[in-house]
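Sequence in, structure out.
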Amino acid sequence: MWYLKQLLSVTLLAMGVSISWSADNVVKVKEGDSAPEISLPATGEKKMLNLAELKGKKNVVLFFYPKAMTKGCTIESCGFRDVAKDFEALDTVIVGISIDKLSAQEEFVKKEKLNFPLLADDEMKVSKMLGVMADNGKVTKRITFVIDKEGKIAKIYDKVNPKEHPTEVLKFIRENLSKK
């Protein structure tokens, strides 16, 4: 289906007709855009996290993962946990998000001793709004948005190796956002 939409879009574009598909699996923001308002139930002391509250104060690493307590998601989340102090030193907060229910997120935090909040997008509003749903519509893609202190999307990672990703993001922030 995706291929047919792409082919039709290219054909129509060549004919001078533009078309927009409203797919939940096509990223709907780009680097340089303002980050959308996101307010969701969260693990930790604050039971709701509104990313707008961090604007002007902190960079944000917002990483989407498919499912709590699965192998790749555990590797990635624990990787962020293990370098969280390095992010903190760069005025950066880490926030994980999936479409799991809050109870599953809380269990994941407890089991893996995660030291950052996880957001529960169990109604899939944010995931669909950003276009990060997997093709099957049952989980999110593994994708990360780095948001700078001004609330702009500084970097989008849509190809993520769970093991290497936390240090890859840390390097980007050190080289690009630590001087802002």
